[in-house]
Design a protein that fits this description.
Elements lengths: L1 H11 L2 E2 H12 L7 H13 L3 E6 L7 E6 L1 H12 L3 H5 L1 H10 L6 H16 L6 E2 L2 E2 L8 H29 L1
Antiparallel strand pairs: 1-3, 2-3, 4-5
Helix pairs in contact: 1-4, 1-6, 7-8
Length: 174
Amino acid sequence: MLKLAILGFLHERPLHGYELRRHLAALTGHVRPISDGTLYPAIKKLEAAGLLRREKEPGSAAAPRHTLHLTEAGRAELFDILRGPTELDISDENRWFTLLAFLRHLADPAAQRAVLERRLAFLRTPASFFYDGERPVTAEELDDPFRQGVLLIARATSRAELAWLEATLERLAG
């Protein structure tokens, strides 16, 4: 998802490395902090693949700064990722939120709908965090208040997301 986030933010506008890091931290830092030891090798890898390029700019006080720009190949890669997310991108909440943050970059409402419909189908599939053999256990069946909390919070979150998905899909269809 780091690749998607980098490409997505650079699609919006060229950024300096520290600006990109700040945007990434705002998007995913509360869940997965991004260190320089992770970010800068990822940038170099994307640059080597031709997905982004650096341009030197004079520094305000000292050394020149490097601005990162998305290339046409990077733009194409971003759109490929957005159009065809993996099953893990659809099912993992953190990956899903990263994908969702940049889905607006797909100009085609039908392509946006296809991705949202996959998430909707995933959320409508019955699941639980806890099972009695093969049978999912509901919050009401549990004596453990902490496990009840997990299930009640997940249920409330899923209901809110289902309502948003259904409304957004309707709007995109209109």
